[in-house]
Structures are given as structure tokens and as C-alpha cells.
Amino acid sequence: MERDAAAARVASPQAATKYVDHEAAIPVQEETRPSKTASAPRRPVTLHQLSFREHSEQNLAALGLIDRLCLRFLNFVVARRALAFCVVTGFYVALAGAGIAFGCLTPSPQYQYEWIIDDKRSTRNMDMRLAAVDAVDQLDAGDLHARKQPHQLIGIWVEYAGPSGNIFTPTRLQEICEMEATFYRPAKYQDVCVLDNDGQCAIPPLSIVGQFYGVEWLAGLVQNGTGTCDLLATAEVEATWISMISAANATREGFNEYGIFMEKGAVAVGATSKTRSLLSVGQPLEGFASTRDRTERQTKTYLAYFEAVEQDLWDHFGVESTFFQTPYFAPWRRNGLKLRYFSWLIARLENLRMQEMDLYFIIFTIIFVDLCIRAYTRSHAFTAAALAQIQLSIPVTAFLYRIAFRIEYFGSLHLCSIFLALGIGADDNFVLFDAWRQAQADVPRVENADETTLRRLLYAFSRTMDTVFNTSLTTALAFLCLGLSPIMPVRTFGIFAAMVVVCNYVMVLTMIPTCLILCDGCYFWPRQCAREAATKSSAPKSERRIFPSIKPFFEKIYLRYMSWTLSCAKGIPIGAWLSVWCFLVLGVFLGYRALHLEMPREQEELFPKKHMFMGFLNDMANDYEAGADDQYCRVFYTFGINNLGKENYDEYKPDYKRGYAKWNRAFDLHAPAARLALKGFCDTVRAVPCSEQECSMGLLHLPESTICFYEEFEAWKAAGYGNSSLGLSNATADEFYGELASFRESTYPGMMLGHESDGSTWNDYIGFIDGHLRYVTVSTSLTMKQYSAIQERREVINRVIHFVDGQQPPLPPELGDLTYDGGWEFLWTDTFEALRASLFEGLAICFPLAFAVLLFSTENLLVSLYAIFGIALIVASVLGTIEYIYGWDLGIVESLMGNLVVGFSVDYTIHLGHMFVAADKEHNLRHRVDRFSFAIRKMGSTVVVGAVTTLGAGLFLLPCQLVSLNKLGLLMITTIFFSLLYSFGFVMPLLAAAGPSGDRFAFRPLSALKRMVSKAHGPERAEADGLQGSWYHRGPPVNLLFGVGSSTLRLP
After folding, report:
1. What whole-number distance in Å separates Cα of residue 189 and Cα of residue 178?
2. What pLDDT is attached to residue 754?
3. What are phi and psi for residue 585, nearest 5 degrees?
4. Most exposed among 693, 702, 827, 920, judged by the fewest C-beta atoms under 10 Å?
């Protein structure tokens, strides 16, 4: 019968229309009364109780320290409204102005190493080798070494594609020539081109135009910017094409040399519909020791050239960059020929340009949040105050972040916190507004109008402080889990986002109350003040301000469905159980799909699928008969360096002062054992087997790619170069190193093997520093191509590490330590693996913390268990949706959002769970169904409207052009969607169907600890602590955990 009555009460909103604060109305029982003596202890009082109690000296003295400070602040706000508003708002405006004036919102430069983990073995090896290269004695004096080598990171791939048939016709070649000439004609090309031995711009060896127009014609274009793309004779074109096909069919060398220009299958068919060129810029620039020397200044010079090329190409194809769309979305075609090109520096330019475009969507997000707040509160004043608070929170946080905490890095990822702040800040403001609105009905009037206002403000303030504290704490902790990441942008973003959450919480509690009191009553669009509204209508304010479309749904549909039962079910809420089981099955299925998430199987997507750059590098690696050397991962094996030292390194400027090499003092290549071991090592490198999927030809290293300087040094001596009368076997150390230095100066890699010079030197391979040989390097290429899947890449990297570790023990001491440097492919593999590890480590930290917050906020073990299980289903469903519906891998954005899901999803369950328990504390509702109904009516609309604003913040990220922002928006929407779904469809129905009634499963650890301490000191101590009588034997009342006594003074 009791259960039937409770179910009936759910469907009857009249049973819960008027509430009385039962906590304030509970009579003082005789057994719990303290003895009326002068030494009777004071029981603690909270701000919430003070809303209903007499403001006597005894009650005020019983407040805790924080509550006393809050009461003083609120007294000041009510007593000096205008002054309080000016002081508090002026303070935050001043902080925000300082943050903007000091450039705290200015993004940091994009650093090459910002996503690289410094303490990884691969990173340290690369830093050691590059530091050693920077320290070597240059081959020539002055800047003659400048731009002698192509820059490996910013080469330009250019692809030309025709509609069908063979692309090599006179007309199409003329069009290809005009397109490629665009890269050579800008005057700034002369500042960045690769230089030959005469100091002139070198002829690009992998230019398809040079194959047909000739080297001499191309030299004039490259060096002087002159030359006309004339129409070639058909016979000449056909003869050149036939010679290329014949060479490719004749030898392996010919296949590698000419297959690079032909699509897959072209050698067999005798025709190719597309071709390509690889164009390079030189490094380092004049006046710089290496690419790591004053990186930012060198980058500006390169960017000036690429911007000129980009603008010329836009003019050539008649495209332009608009306010909302990049010119790279539409295909670039001219006379039937399609051009695609890519360089990492141009991609960087495009990324920055698209970021600037996408940030304009913040305006639409602000407008959307404005409309949501205005529609829900019907207050111009509150809407203006809330939006001002949310927007001020970003520069205020930035000021504290960069000036107070001295964290100098502020990347593009940090700007995403603006969207997060709009959603989170609006949610916090909704909670405060609803509490203030409910205070109008729950807190009775007293004779003094200011005291009435103060009591209602205490009611709203205390409820918001507790409720928003719980949600802000869990969200901030979820962000701080990112602060544990070894990846600097992720770590600093986690810290900044957590500070934004905390800053919003503090500003909502300090700035918004001053606005509420200053504009007291001016809430409704049709009226100017609440006093006029009260005289014109007898309806309670709380009823008039309800968001019109939400409450009827809960009253007429949701509560009725959840309480639906059958006569034979004995009052069991069938509707609630059906909802629980349906969402449990959904969560289990999506959780199973989440187990199939993998590391990225290809290059991380930076741009949308229709963007020119999207998939370009994969096409370059897989669509042509042969690949260029730089399409395979290059690895450098170095002897003689044993450690890396650092001085004044700033982790927030990771491109600078990355360290210096420490030499192995035992290194001595003159020792016969060292030379013999080095030759043997070169032979071993060429024969290392590899059975991994990404290894081709069953070898770890690419045949004919190993550069072993010592083999060529011996050949050089055997050919009679140097001191012909001096043999290496009987040379002294000084004579040996003198010959090696002469070899280093007079030859280039491959010279003794009959290869043409490609501009490379022995400068980086034979490390003479201050006239002493400190290190030597053997370089080779892996059979693994660049941009392969992370998991497969890791298997090959492990092979390299195993090879190095296996080679080190038998090496003689004179050869020193053996290290490997696999370049950026190895470093980015560590980054992706760290992102995945931080996801699971963060979840392992977030879940216990979230459970602890739930436990202390709800004070009920069963409610907390239900809530944390619901959160687990939300996380599983979001990750399962990523894999099953979106088809994504576990990339950068997905890994970042994994931890944030916990922070976002816990908000709604805490709001509803806290109100479920508060139904007993504040309104003496003991049965679970009554508590369920109370929580839905009190907090349902607040949760929904708060979710709508966060959904809106994510919704306006969907049109963003950058894939990362687009994914972030879609994941925000997915997270909020599942959070709402499981909060109202799983957690709350489960509480209605099997939640605690009365004090069942109550869990108050702080109260229990205090009771244990009191018992240990005997009844006298218990009496002194206010735990005498029934408290000492039965335990404290429900609110003792937060210092609230159950005995109150009832106000008339």
C-alpha cells in the first residue's frame, strides 16, 4: 500500500507543490536537548539553516569560519548594493583587463617539439645527435655550408593529374611547366633554395619538368627566374617517355629512378595518368649554424617564400580565401589538369588560417548561450550579468595562469576552453538562478525587507555553493588528470581548463549575487521590476519563471511513465525498470564496441576530407611505382655520445636550448678493434632480418640505403688519395685522424661508389669538434614507410631498439656507446602512445575521485554506486560511439575527451543525486519514489537547460573547418547527449525502482570518525562535543557531516 501511494504521488504534482523546510521545523526532542547550563556546547550552524533561523549572536557564533566569511560578504552585498557591485565587478574587470593588456590570451608560437615528450629514449637520442651535429667543425669557413642540404621537414610534393590516358603529352606538359614554374619565379626563392657548389640555386633532381625540358632549361628558370614553357614536339615527348619506361624495365636502379614519376602499374601498362615532383628548400639559412639555431627567425624567412608561392598559385587557378572557407576545399583545375601539393610549412599556414576562421564561431556560441539564458530566466539583467561573468572568466584565468602561476605556454588547444567555459559557466548560473527563484517561495518573509533579501540570498548562495562545488570539483579534477600527461600542450591545457572551472565557480558565487541584489526584481521581459509584478499577479514568482516547455514534459510524460505499473506488479514501477534495462543493454553493447578502439592506423587527420591536403601523404607513399628516399623512415646509428646535458632549458619554449652532447671519453676510432667493429656493424645493418608487417623484403633496413663512411674512407685510401705513402694499419693516431679529416673535406657520401653529388656532405657523419673526433654516424633507411599505423610502427621501432641493445655488448670500449635516432616518426609514436596511456590512467584516477565526490555529496553509498555505474556507462557509450558509429581511431582529440567525459557526465548525476538525498533532509520525504519525484521537479529543468547550453557550445563547433575542433564539438554533443540520457533514463529510474528509502545505505564517514573519537574519550567528551543522549548511541543526524545540527529555531 505504501508503494502504491508513493507511485500515485509521483504522478500527482499537487502533492509536491508546496514545500516546507522540515529541517528547520523539526521539534527539539528532549533527549537531544543540551543541558541548559553555561557550559552547554554550541552546535554548528550552516548558511542554509541561517536562512530560517533567528540571526542571534549564539547562531552567528556557531557558524564555521568559511560560513562566517561568506555571511559577512553577503551582508555587505545586501547593505551596500551599488558599492558591492562596483567593487566586485571592478575587481574582475581589472584582472581581465590586465590579462588582455599583458597578452595573456596571445597564443604562443607553434613549436616543432611542443608535442614531443622530452624524457623518452628516442627524444633524448635525437637531441643528442642533433646537438652533436650543431657542435661539429664546419667543412668550410663562413656561411659556405648554408643551404647546401635540402630541408627534410619542409620539402614540397607537387602532384599533377590528368583526366585519363597518358599525362605526358605536349599540351599537358606545357601546363605542368607553367604550374611548377610558380614555385621558382618568386624573388624570395633565391633566399631559400638549395645551393650548389657554385653558390647558385641547385637544379631539383626530382622535378618532372627537368626530365622533359632538360637540365639546362630548368637551371635558367631556377637560378634566374627566366624561361618560357614552350610547347614541346610530340616526337620529343614520346622519345623521353619511352626512354623512362625502358630504364624502369631494365634495372632496379632505373625502376627506382623513374618509377617515382609513375603511378602504380604504369611500367607494365606504358602510360600514367598522373605524375609528381619533389621540390626542396635549403637548410640552414645564411647566418645560422643549423635548423635549430633561432628557429623562429628561420621559419619566418621560409614562411615569406611559401606565402608568395601560395598567393601566386591562388592567382593562377583563380581561387581565393574567403571569410568562412579556405581555397583548398575546391579542386584546383586548369585546362583539364588537376594540381595538388603539400608542405608541412604550408599546412601550418593553413592550420593557423583555419583556426582564425573557426574562432569566429565563438560569436555564434555566445549568441546561442545568451538566448538560452534569456529564455529560461526571462531577465535581461541576469542574462547580461551571466554572459559578462562567463566571458570575463577567460582573461581572468589567463592572467592567473600566465602571470601568477608563470605558465608561459598558451596554445591553440587552450582556446577551446572558451567553448567549455560557455557551457559550464551557464550551467553554474542556472543553478544559482534556480536556487534564488526557489528561495522566493521556500524562505518566508520577515518584517525587515533587507533581512528577507539576505535570508533568501543565503538560501540560494548556500545551495549553489554546495551543489556547484561538487560538480566543479569533479570537472576540475577530470581536467587536472590531463595535467599529469607528459605531453606539454595537454598538461598545460588540463591545468588551464581546471582553472577556468574553478574561476567560474568563484565568480558565480561572488559576482553574480551582487548583480542579483542590485537589480533585485528586474527579471521579466514585460515588467520593469518584481514589485510591480507582485502587485499585478498573485502567482508565485517561482511558478511564473519556469521554462515553459520543460516542466510539462516532466509532469505529464516522464514522471507518469517512470511510475507506470501493473495491478499484479504490487506497486513495482515497471516503467522505471524497463528504462533501466534498456539503457543497461545499450551501455553494455557500446562498451563492448569501445574495446575495439585502436591507435591511429594512418596519419592523424588535421583537415576535412574534401581538403586538398587530406590523404595527400598517403597517396604519395602508396600510389606510385617507386618512392623517394624521404618516404622511408631514416635512422641514424651513432657512436661516441653517451648522454645529454641541459642548461636553462624552458619546457614552455621547447625548440630552444634542448641540450648539449656529452662525449664518451673512451671513444677512439684509431684503435684497430674499433675500426673492425665499425665495419662489421655496417655489414650487420644491411642484413638485419625483420618479419613485421611494415617491413618489406624481410629486412629491417632498405637495401642500398646504408651510408657507411668508413668503407668509403678505406676505398678512398686504396685509390691513392690523401697521403699515398701512409697506410691505415701503421698510421699513428694523429696521422689517422689527419687523413680522416682530409677525406671528410674532399669527398661526399657516395662519391667512392660512383654516385653523383646530391649536395650532402660528411659534415654530420664524421664529428670533428675542435679538431678532435668525438662521434661517427652510420645512417640507413628502414623498410618501413613514413606515416604507417602507430601499432605497426611500434613493432618496427621495437626491432630497432632490440637491434641496438643487442649490438652494444660485443662492441669494444673504444667505439663507445651506440645510440639510434629514428627522427620524428619515432617521437610521434611515443606521443600517441602517451596519449592513450594518459586516457586510461586518467580514467583510473577520475573514477575513484568522482565516486568520492558523489559519496560525500550524497552521503549515501547506494546512490553513489548507482551514479558511478551510470557514469561508467556514459564513458563506455561515448567511446563505443567513437568506434562503432563515427569510425574513428583513438587519436589526439579522442584521447583528450576520454577524461573529460567523466567530468561532464558526473555533473548531472551529482545534481540529481544530491537533490534525491536533499528531499529527506529538507522536506522529510522518506520513500524513494517521493525523493525521485522531488529531485526531478526541483532539478530536472535546471539540468536540461544547462545541458542545452553546453550542447549549443558543441553545436557551433561542428561547422568548424579544422577536424580537431569539429571532433571536439561532436564529442561534446555526444557526451552531453549520453549524460542526459543515462541520468534520466538509467540513474534516476534505478533510484526510483531500487533506491534507498529512509536512512538505508547512509554513509557519513566524517560523522562516524567524530563519533569514534568521542567514544574513545568516554561520555564526558561526547557531551562536550554535543553528542550526548541519543546522538552518542544512535549516531548523528543526517547533516552532521557538513556541521549541521537538526535542532532549529522556528521563525514565525
Report:
1. 16
2. 86
3. -65, -45
4. 693
Can you give the pLDDT at residue 1048?
30
- 295: which 3 cell numbers? 628557429
3-state percent helix, strand, coil for the chain, nearest multiple of 5: 60, 5, 35
Q: What is the pLDDT of residue 294?
A: 83
Helix locations, 102-200, DSSP H = 121-135, 170-184, 189-192
More confident residue, 123 or 226: 123
Rounded to the nearest 10 degrees, how much is the dihedral formed by the CA atoms of 308, 311, 312, 315?
A: -170
CA–CA separation, 450 and 460 (whole Å): 15
Extract the C-alpha cell encoding 142: 663562413
Least confident of 36-40, 79-83, 219-223: 36-40
Average pLDDT (792-796) is 92
Please give the grid coordinates belonging to residue 469. 562545488
363 pLDDT band, cuts 50/70/90, is: confident
Q: How far out from the chain centre does Cα 324 lie?
A: 24
Angle at 91 between CA 89 and CA 95, to 5 degrees: 115
Strand-strand pairing, 772-785 and 632-639: antiparallel
Query: What is the Cα 991 distance to its own chain's centre?
Result: 35
From residue 153, how far is each of 135, 157, 403, 893, 1008 by CA, in Å? 21, 11, 35, 24, 63
Per-residue model confidence (pLDDT) at position 1000: 85
- Angle CA 895–359–893, to nearest 5: 5
Confidence of residue 650 (pLDDT cuts 50, 70, 90): very high
Three-class secondary structure of residue 539 per DSSP: coil
Q: Which residues, other chains included, contact 851 with Cβ-Cβ below 8 Å and sequence gap of 6+?
A: 864, 868
Distance CA 977, CA 632 (A): 44
DSSP letter for each residue of 560-615: HHHT---GGGTT--HHHHHHHHHHHHHHHHHHHHHTT--S-SSSPP-S-TTSTTTT
> 227-231, 572-576, 612-616, 999-1003 — which is least confidently predicted?
999-1003
The predicted model gives 102-119 an average pLDDT of 92
Largest pairwise CA distance in the chain: 118
- Reported confidence tier of residue 682, pLDDT bands at 50, 70, 90: very high
Q: 555 vs 10, 551, 624, CA distance in Å?
A: 9, 6, 65
Q: Is the pLDDT of residue 667 over 90?
A: yes
Grid cell, residue 66, equals 568559511
Lowest mean pLDDT among 18-27, 38-47, 319-328, 914-923: 18-27
Report d(CA 209, CA 177) in Å as an integer.
Answer: 6
Burial class (CB in 10 A: 0-12, 13-18, 19+), 106: exposed
679-702 in b/e form (b: 16+ CB < 10 A) is eebbeebbebebebebbeeebbbb
> Would you put residue 287 in left (φ > 0), alpha (ψ -120 to 50) or beta?
left
Give the three cell numbers for residue 1046: 537538526
What residues form DSSP beta bridges with 163?
none
pLDDT of residue 582: 95
| Angle, helix 449-482 to helix 488-518, in steps of 10 degrees | 170
pLDDT of 569: 64
Asked if residue 487 lies in contact with residue 934, where contact means CB atoms within 8 angstroms, the answer is no
Q: Tell me the β-bridge partners of 777.
A: 638
Which cell goes with 750? 657516395
3-class state of residue 283 by DSSP: strand
- Cell readout for 610 is 574534401
Q: Strand pairing partners for 278?
A: 157, 206
CB < 8 Å & 24+ apart, contacts of 269-272: 270/245, 271/165, 271/166, 272/166, 272/167, 272/168
* Nearest CA among 980, 959, 958, 984 for reference residue 971: 958
For cell 662525449, what's the residue? 663
pLDDT value of position 123: 96
Angle between helices 861-884 and 823-858 (to 10 degrees): 150
The alpha carbon of 672 is separated from its chain's Cα centroid by a whole number of angstroms, namely 53
Which grid coordinates are listed for 52? Answer: 530560517
